[in-house]
Protein backbone atom coordinates (compact mmCIF):
# COMPACT_ATOMS: atom_id res chain seq x y z
CA UNK A 1 0.00 0.00 0.00
CA UNK A 2 1.28 3.46 -0.91
CA UNK A 3 1.24 6.42 1.44
CA UNK A 4 2.21 10.05 0.92
CA UNK A 5 3.52 11.91 3.96
CA UNK A 6 2.93 15.63 3.43
CA UNK A 7 4.90 17.50 6.07
CA UNK A 8 7.47 20.30 6.32
CA UNK A 9 8.92 19.31 9.71
CA UNK A 10 12.07 17.18 9.54
CA UNK A 11 11.38 15.86 13.04
CA UNK A 12 7.90 14.66 12.09
CA UNK A 13 9.18 13.22 8.81
CA UNK A 14 11.82 11.18 10.64
CA UNK A 15 9.34 9.95 13.23
CA UNK A 16 6.73 8.83 10.74
CA UNK A 17 9.25 7.28 8.38
CA UNK A 18 10.41 5.13 11.31
CA UNK A 19 6.85 4.35 12.39
CA UNK A 20 5.81 3.23 8.91
CA UNK A 21 8.94 1.12 8.52
CA UNK A 22 8.98 -1.06 5.41
CA UNK A 23 5.34 -2.07 5.63
CA UNK A 24 4.25 0.70 3.25
CA UNK A 25 5.73 2.46 0.23
CA UNK A 26 6.19 5.96 1.63
CA UNK A 27 6.61 9.08 -0.51
CA UNK A 28 7.54 12.27 1.36
CA UNK A 29 6.31 15.67 0.18
CA UNK A 30 7.23 18.92 1.93
CA UNK A 31 4.64 21.38 0.60
CA UNK A 32 1.13 21.78 -0.76
CA UNK A 33 2.61 22.64 -4.13
CA UNK A 34 4.56 19.40 -4.13
CA UNK A 35 1.46 17.44 -3.19
CA UNK A 36 -0.53 18.98 -6.03
CA UNK A 37 2.11 17.75 -8.48
CA UNK A 38 2.05 14.10 -7.40
CA UNK A 39 -1.63 13.32 -6.74
CA UNK A 40 -3.63 11.92 -9.62
CA UNK A 41 -7.37 11.73 -10.35
CA UNK A 42 -8.92 8.79 -8.47
CA UNK A 43 -5.66 8.31 -6.57
CA UNK A 44 -6.02 5.43 -4.09
CA UNK A 45 -3.08 6.40 -1.93
CA UNK A 46 -3.50 7.69 1.60
CA UNK A 47 -2.06 11.12 2.42
CA UNK A 48 -0.84 11.61 5.97
CA UNK A 49 -1.09 15.36 6.25
CA UNK A 50 0.56 17.44 8.99
CA UNK A 51 -1.67 20.13 10.53
CA UNK A 52 1.04 22.79 10.21
CA UNK A 53 0.59 22.75 6.41
CA UNK A 54 -3.14 23.49 6.57
CA UNK A 55 -3.80 27.09 5.44
CA UNK A 56 -6.51 29.37 6.81
CA UNK A 57 -8.59 28.66 3.72
CA UNK A 58 -8.89 25.01 4.72
CA UNK A 59 -12.44 24.58 3.41
CA UNK A 60 -11.45 25.08 -0.22
CA UNK A 61 -8.26 23.05 0.20
CA UNK A 62 -9.96 19.99 1.63
CA UNK A 63 -12.93 20.22 -0.71
CA UNK A 64 -10.43 19.85 -3.54
CA UNK A 65 -8.19 17.22 -1.94
CA UNK A 66 -10.77 14.91 -0.38
CA UNK A 67 -12.54 14.52 -3.70
CA UNK A 68 -9.37 12.85 -5.00
CA UNK A 69 -7.53 11.25 -2.07
CA UNK A 70 -7.94 9.99 1.50
CA UNK A 71 -6.46 12.33 4.11
CA UNK A 72 -5.31 11.35 7.59
CA UNK A 73 -4.60 14.59 9.46
CA UNK A 74 -1.96 14.80 12.21
CA UNK A 75 -2.08 17.52 14.83
CA UNK A 76 0.57 18.30 17.44
CA UNK A 77 -2.25 19.61 19.66
CA UNK A 78 -5.37 17.64 18.70
CA UNK A 79 -8.71 19.16 19.65
CA UNK A 80 -12.11 17.47 19.47
CA UNK A 81 -13.87 20.47 17.94
CA UNK A 82 -11.18 20.84 15.31
CA UNK A 83 -11.23 17.12 14.56
CA UNK A 84 -14.99 17.16 14.08
CA UNK A 85 -14.76 20.20 11.79
CA UNK A 86 -12.12 18.54 9.59
CA UNK A 87 -14.05 15.28 9.43
CA UNK A 88 -17.03 17.21 8.11
CA UNK A 89 -14.72 18.49 5.38
CA UNK A 90 -14.08 14.92 4.29
CA UNK A 91 -10.90 13.68 5.96
CA UNK A 92 -10.85 10.03 7.07
CA UNK A 93 -8.62 10.27 10.13
CA UNK A 94 -7.49 12.69 12.82
CA UNK A 95 -4.84 11.90 15.42
CA UNK A 96 -1.96 13.14 17.53
CA UNK A 97 1.27 13.52 15.58
CA UNK A 98 3.04 11.64 18.35
CA UNK A 99 0.68 8.68 18.67
CA UNK A 100 2.32 5.37 19.50
CA UNK A 101 3.52 3.21 16.57
CA UNK A 102 0.91 0.58 17.42
CA UNK A 103 -1.96 3.06 17.24
CA UNK A 104 -0.58 4.58 14.04
CA UNK A 105 -0.40 1.26 12.23
CA UNK A 106 -3.85 0.24 13.48
CA UNK A 107 -5.26 3.56 12.26
CA UNK A 108 -3.70 3.16 8.82
CA UNK A 109 -4.92 -0.43 8.55
CA UNK A 110 -8.49 0.56 9.40
CA UNK A 111 -8.47 3.56 7.08
CA UNK A 112 -7.30 1.42 4.16
CA UNK A 113 -10.17 -0.93 5.09
CA UNK A 114 -12.70 1.88 4.72
CA UNK A 115 -13.05 3.02 8.33
CA UNK A 116 -12.66 6.45 9.89
CA UNK A 117 -10.06 6.92 12.65
CA UNK A 118 -10.76 9.50 15.36
CA UNK A 119 -10.85 9.74 19.14
CA UNK A 120 -13.80 8.16 20.89
CA UNK A 121 -15.39 11.48 21.89
CA UNK A 122 -15.28 12.78 18.33
CA UNK A 123 -16.70 9.50 17.05
CA UNK A 124 -19.62 9.66 19.49
CA UNK A 125 -20.37 13.25 18.46
CA UNK A 126 -20.34 12.24 14.80
CA UNK A 127 -22.74 9.39 15.48
CA UNK A 128 -25.11 11.66 17.40
CA UNK A 129 -25.16 14.03 14.44
CA UNK A 130 -26.24 11.22 12.09
CA UNK A 131 -29.48 10.84 13.99
CA UNK A 132 -32.60 12.40 12.54
CA UNK A 133 -34.12 13.32 15.90
CA UNK A 134 -31.43 12.98 18.59
CA UNK A 135 -33.93 13.54 21.40
CA UNK A 136 -35.89 10.40 20.53
CA UNK A 137 -34.49 7.00 21.42
CA UNK A 138 -37.05 4.67 19.83
CA UNK A 139 -37.38 5.80 16.25
CA UNK A 140 -38.44 3.19 13.73
CA UNK A 141 -36.18 2.07 10.91
CA UNK A 142 -36.34 -0.39 8.06
CA UNK A 143 -36.25 -3.71 9.93
CA UNK A 144 -34.77 -5.43 6.88
CA UNK A 145 -31.49 -3.65 7.61
CA UNK A 146 -30.86 -5.83 10.67
CA UNK A 147 -32.79 -8.96 9.67
CA UNK A 148 -29.69 -11.21 9.65
CA UNK A 149 -28.61 -10.23 13.17
CA UNK A 150 -29.35 -12.13 16.37
CA UNK A 151 -31.49 -10.45 19.02
CA UNK A 152 -28.41 -9.46 21.04
CA UNK A 153 -26.55 -8.19 17.96
CA UNK A 154 -29.58 -6.10 17.01
CA UNK A 155 -29.74 -4.59 20.52
CA UNK A 156 -26.07 -3.65 20.37
CA UNK A 157 -26.33 -2.25 16.84
CA UNK A 158 -29.26 -0.04 17.87
CA UNK A 159 -27.35 1.25 20.92
CA UNK A 160 -24.32 2.05 18.77
CA UNK A 161 -26.65 4.03 16.47
CA UNK A 162 -27.80 5.98 19.53
CA UNK A 163 -24.20 7.04 20.17
CA UNK A 164 -23.47 4.72 23.11
CA UNK A 165 -19.90 3.62 23.81
CA UNK A 166 -18.99 -0.05 24.26
CA UNK A 167 -18.69 0.49 28.00
CA UNK A 168 -22.13 2.12 28.18
CA UNK A 169 -23.63 -0.71 26.12
CA UNK A 170 -22.03 -3.32 28.37
CA UNK A 171 -23.46 -1.65 31.47
CA UNK A 172 -26.95 -1.28 29.97
CA UNK A 173 -27.14 -4.89 28.79
CA UNK A 174 -25.39 -6.43 31.79
CA UNK A 175 -22.57 -7.98 29.76
CA UNK A 176 -18.82 -7.42 29.51
CA UNK A 177 -17.21 -4.87 27.22
CA UNK A 178 -15.30 -7.75 25.61
CA UNK A 179 -18.62 -9.43 24.75
CA UNK A 180 -19.88 -6.19 23.20
CA UNK A 181 -16.77 -6.01 21.01
CA UNK A 182 -17.24 -9.64 19.94
CA UNK A 183 -20.87 -9.05 18.96
CA UNK A 184 -19.94 -5.85 17.11
CA UNK A 185 -17.34 -7.71 15.08
CA UNK A 186 -20.06 -10.14 13.99
CA UNK A 187 -22.44 -7.24 13.23
CA UNK A 188 -19.85 -5.53 11.03
CA UNK A 189 -19.26 -8.74 9.08
CA UNK A 190 -22.95 -9.52 8.58
CA UNK A 191 -23.86 -5.97 7.51
CA UNK A 192 -20.74 -5.34 5.43
CA UNK A 193 -19.68 -2.25 7.36
CA UNK A 194 -16.22 -1.45 8.67
CA UNK A 195 -16.83 0.84 11.65
CA UNK A 196 -19.39 1.92 14.25
CA UNK A 197 -19.82 5.19 12.34
CA UNK A 198 -20.75 3.30 9.16
CA UNK A 199 -23.11 1.14 11.23
CA UNK A 200 -24.78 4.21 12.74
CA UNK A 201 -25.16 5.79 9.31
CA UNK A 202 -26.72 2.61 7.94
CA UNK A 203 -29.32 2.49 10.70
CA UNK A 204 -29.97 6.20 11.21
CA UNK A 205 -30.31 7.04 7.52
CA UNK A 206 -32.86 4.25 7.23
CA UNK A 207 -35.02 5.55 10.05
CA UNK A 208 -38.56 6.56 9.34
The whole-number mean of residue pLDDT values reads: 84
Within CATH, the superfamily of the largest domain carries the name: Response regulator
Bulk shape: elongated
Query: What is the gyration radius calculated from CA atoms?
Result: 19 Å
Strand order of the largest sheet: 2-1-3-4-5
| Poorly predicted sequence stretches spanning 5 or more consecutive residues | 136-140
Topology as a string of helices (H) and strands (E): EHEHEHEHEHHHHHH
CATH topology title of the largest domain: Rossmann fold
Strand proportion: 5-15%
CATH level 1 name of the largest domain = Alpha Beta
Question: Strands, helices and their partners?
Answer:
Elements: E1 2-6, H1 10-20, E2 25-29, H2 32-38, E3 46-50, H3 58-65, E4 70-75, H4 80-88, E5 93-96, H5 101-112, H6 120-130, H7 151-161, H8 166-173, H9 177-191, H10 196-204
Helix pairs in contact: 4-6, 6-10, 7-9, 7-10, 8-9
Spell out the key features of this protein:
about 210 residues, 10 helices, Rossmann fold, alpha/beta, Arc Repressor Mutant, subunit A
Short description:
Helix 1 links the parallel strand 1 (2-6) and strand 2 (25-29). With 208 residues, the chain is of the alpha/beta class.
Question: Can you offer a commentary on this structure?
Answer:
The protein has helices spanning 10-20, 32-38, 58-65, 80-88, 101-112, 120-130, 151-161, 166-173, 177-191, 196-204, and strands at residues 2-6, 25-29, 46-50, 70-75, 93-96. The chain has 208 residues and is of the alpha/beta class. It has 2 domains: 2-118, Rossmann fold (3-Layer(aba) Sandwich); 127-204, Orthogonal Bundle (Arc Repressor Mutant, subunit A). The chain has a 5-stranded parallel sheet, sandwiched between helices. The longest helix has 15 residues, at 177-191. 29% of the residues are buried.
